[in-house]
């Protein structure tokens, strides 16, 4: 009987020890996953930084769209020539707090379809305009006619966030970069529209608007703090278990 009584406190540690081991392993696996994500994000940032220094290449045409990895191609410098379809502008809401040009604040990025020399279409983000200059009629000088050549950065499309405002069905005001939706609203043939967009460089437009070259090249990289968080929780869990075990053993003594 005395031996049973002596062992019973130790038995109380079996279930907590197993639970602690399971949760500890889970927390460590989450920490290691974030370590891998950190390495991936750092490599991506380095790759994009290097890509931005490259000479522009011709924008991918329809023969490459099916095999094009849009995530991999994001921020690739490209060039394309054709004619703007100004009557089919799409406007993407943006709050430009740190503009590179003279105009900033709340406004819109102007996405204009460009019919290329080859006949296919790509939406070009020509740049930023303030709220009061959203309508093309307020900036007629910037509606460049005839053949143009655009140089800029290829950008992959975006998926609207869960809490993001939705575009109105009867307008061309948008809250996510969606070239397929832009084209559908404008009545453009879907099979002729590129699955990506191009952010034009800072080459000035007549009249100063739209204000190009406002692409924000930033990546959120919070993985290191997540690594610290998960491994910190794992160590804290071990500390809590040790404190609990000591209490049990003291009661046994």
TrEMBL record:
Keywords: Cell membrane, Membrane, Transmembrane, Transmembrane helix
Transmembrane domains' residue ranges: 12-33, 224-245
One Pfam family it belongs to: SURF1
InterPro entries: Surf1/Shy1 (IPR002994), Surf1/Surf4 (IPR045214)
Membrane topology qualifier: Multi-pass membrane protein
Superkingdom of this protein's organism: Bacteria
Subcellular location: Cell membrane; Membrane
Record family assignment: Belongs to the SURF1 family.
Protein name stated in the entry: SURF1-like protein
Taxonomic path: Bacteria, Pseudomonadati, Pseudomonadota, Alphaproteobacteria, Hyphomicrobiales
């Amino acid at each position: 009987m005395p031996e049973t009584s002596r062992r019973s406190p130790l038995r109380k540690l079996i279930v907590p020890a197993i639970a602690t081991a399971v949760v500890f392993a889970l927390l460590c696996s989450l920490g290691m996953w974030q370590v891998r994500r950190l390495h991936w994000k750092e490599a991506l940032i380095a790759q994009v930084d290097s890509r931005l220094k490259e000479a522009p290449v011709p924008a991918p045409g329809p023969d490459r769209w099916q095999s094009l990895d849009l995530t991999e191609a994001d921020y690739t410098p490209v060039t394309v020539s054709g004619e703007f379809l100004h009557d089919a502008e799409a406007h993407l809401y943006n709050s430009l707090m740190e503009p590179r040009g003279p105009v900033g604040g709340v406004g819109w990025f102007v996405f204009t379809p460009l019919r290329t020399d080859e006949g296919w279409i790509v939406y070009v983000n020509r740049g930023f305009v303030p709220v009061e200059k959203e309508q093309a009629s307020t900036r007629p000088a910037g509606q460049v006619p005839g053949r143009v050549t655009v140089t800029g950065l290829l950008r992959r499309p975006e998926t609207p966030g869960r809490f993001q405002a939705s575009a109105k069905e009867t307008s061309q005001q948008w809250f996510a970069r969606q070239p397929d939706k832009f084209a559908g609203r404008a009545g453009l043939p879907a099979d002729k529209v590129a699955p990506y967009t191009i952010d034009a460089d800072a080459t000035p437009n007549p009249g100063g608007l739209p204000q190009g070259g406002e692409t924000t090249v930033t990546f959120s990289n919070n993985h290191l703090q997540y690594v610290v968080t998960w491994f910190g929780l794992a160590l804290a869990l071990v500390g809590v278990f040790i404190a609990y075990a000591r209490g049990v053993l003291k009661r046994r003594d």
